[in-house]
Amino acid sequence: MSPEPVPIAGPPHRVLIPEGHGNHRDQRPRPKPSWPWWGAVLLLIMAAVAAMLLLDRSDTTTAELAPPMVDSPPATAPSP
Q: Is residue 65 classed as helix, strand or coil in its secondary structure?
């Protein structure tokens, strides 16, 4: 008498997924964005900083930005 074969314990080699349960959508590769989302955040931050710098510069006059010239006579000098 030959002994009966003992089934080997473990998962089967190939798992069959029944159709119509939504599992076929998970295996489709997702489309990658053309550039990552943090690129948009970085661009937004840079635009905000540039706008703040431009708005901050607009309320200063050119006399405050440029140093006074030394060789020019003062404007309030009394005339003799």
A: helix
**Would you list the DSSP string of 20-40?**
TSSHHHHTSPPPPPSS-HHHH
Positive or negative torsion for Cα 33, 37, 39, 41: positive
How far is CA 8 from each of CA 11, 13, 14, 16, 80, rounded to the nearest angstrom? 9, 12, 15, 19, 117
For residues 45 and 53, what is the distance between their CA atoms, to the nearest angstrom? 12
pTM, rounded to two decimals: 0.32
Q: How far is CA 38 from the centre of its chain?
A: 2
- At 39-70, the pLDDT tens digits run 889 999 999 999 988 887 655 555 566 666 66
